[in-house]
From TrEMBL:
Protein name: Radical SAM/CxCxxxxC motif protein YfkAB
InterPro entries: Aldolase_TIM (IPR013785), rSAM (IPR007197), rSAM_sf (IPR058240), rSAM_YfkAB (IPR031004), YfkB (IPR014866)
Keywords associated with the record: 4Fe-4S, Iron, Iron-sulfur, Metal-binding, S-adenosyl-L-methionine
Location of the Radical SAM core domain: 25-255
Key word Metal-binding present: yes
A Pfam match: Radical_SAM
Gene3D superfamilies attached to this UniProt entry: Aldolase class I
NCBIfam families named among the record's database cross-references: rSAM_YfkAB
PROSITE patterns hit by this protein: RADICAL_SAM
């Protein structure tokens, strides 16, 4: 197999940006598959998308031959995401699923992101470092107490406090060591009422203690798993983003995703903030990547969901029976996807995802907005 040389991830090369598929192929195109590779984790975060479905033993995964066959059938596959649970927790899963996926991606020149809590022994992460393009970690910990409580919020029998505190230190030193050794570590912070008072501290830790190359900022939306945490109002989100831009370290890439701010919404504050974000060096705005060009596959059941919209759509297919490109085409034709799929090329905007629309713009018809925008462009 010939290895395709990948350009390094940078502000100008973000393979997860959904608009790049539109640039290349003229339409939304399946280019990213996320695999849920384990249900096991050493933590149980209250805000974790899968926190309440975690198990103590993984079932037998589907044969890798079926999984790689389904990947072979996707001609424009560009990125893989590996998520859990904690993908590096189970040695069996690392051996039987994670490493074969990493090798597959390497051989095809596909970018790989792993979603990890980075609290396990460093050796596990060093072992796979050469295959990872983005090590993605959530950092919503305003204080170590938040980590030891919220980070285990969904766990009935928590480890002793000292052990939980040690995991926090391990996360920080792992991130720093991996960053210093050249791994691209990207920390994501959700904007919500819990993180808002601590954003300066969190950013400082991400930049200076963990030495992350990128700090991702996403407003938190009230999907099922996050319903118990406090969502910020639109006004608070905007004020918070201005504040972040005031104190951020200008040498560190800050990526804003899933922002509820669109060129077609006639609101001066929105447009001023949008311009500020666009004009600030080392800042990027990513069209929400989830569900635009991506499907999630569970390696145990084969179930396919539209990433992060699982609450809305449920399982839409299964790789035992269907090719992933067919599943994606069918999803794009569904009434829900059709009601969301607007595109204004002048602004490189692909419209809101379902969570953003339901939360902030339930009565806005974005298809109509698109027509109006195209009239004036
Ligand atoms: S793509 Fe949709 S959300 Fe974006 S500006 Fe156009 S109509 Fe508005």
């Amino acid at each position: 197999m010939i290895h395709t040389k990948k350009q390094p991830i940078s502000l100008y090369n973000d393979p997860w940006e959904a608009h790049s598929d539109v640039d290349t192929y003229g339409q939304l195109t399946l280019s990213n598959i996320e695999f849920t590779t384990t249900n096991l984790c050493n933590m149980r975060c209250s805000h974790c998308a899968v926190g309440y479905t975690l198990q103590t033993q993984d079932p037998t995964p589907l044969p890798m031959s079926l999984i790689t066959k389904r990947l072979d059938e996707i001609p424009h596959l560009k990125t893989l995401s590996i998520t859990g649970g904690e993908p590096m927790f189970s040695k069996k899963s690392i051996r039987e699923v994670v490493k074969p996926l990493l090798r597959y991606a390497y051989d095809r020149g596909i970018y790989v992101q792993m979603n990890s809590n980075l609290t396990l022994p460093l050796d596990r992460y060093l072992d796979i470092a050469e295959y990872i393009d983005v090590m993605h970690i959530s950092h919503n910990w305003g204080t170590i107490d938040t980590f030891t409580s919220v980070g285990f919020g969904a766990m009935a029998q928590k480890p002793p406090l000292k052990a939980r505190e040690k995991l926090y230190e391990q996360m920080i030193t792992n991130a720093r060591t991996l960053s210093e050794q050249g791994m691209f570590v990207s920390a994501e912070t959700m904007l919500n009422k819990s993180t808002k008072p601590y954003l300066e501290r969190i950013h400082h830790e991400v930049v200076h203690d963990m030495k992350c190359e990128r700090h991702e900022i996403h407003p938190m939306y009230p999907s099922d798993f996050a319903s118990q945490l406090d969502v910020l109002s639109l006004a608070d989100i905007k004020e918070t983003i201005h504040h972040l831009l005031d104190f951020r370290d200008s040498a560190t890439w800050m990526l804003f995703g899933t922002l509820p701010i669109f060129p077609c919404i006639q609101n001066n504050e929105d447009q001023q903030l949008r311009q500020r974000l666009l004009n600030t060096p080392n800042v990027s705005l990513r069209n929400d990547p989830d569900g635009r060009s991506r499907l999630n596959v569970n390696v145990f059941t084969g179930n396919v969901i539209v990433t992060d919209f699982g609450d809305e759509t449920g399982t839409i297919s299964n790789i035992k029976y269907d090719k992933l490109n067919d599943v994606f085409d069918k999803w794009l034709k569904s009434p829900l996807a059709q009601s969301l799929n607007c595109h204004c090329p002048k602004y490189r905007c692909l419209g809101p995802n379902v969570l953003v629309k339901n939360m902030y713009y339930p009565n806005v018809d974005f298809n109509q907005k698109e027509i109006e925008m195209h009239r004036t462009q």
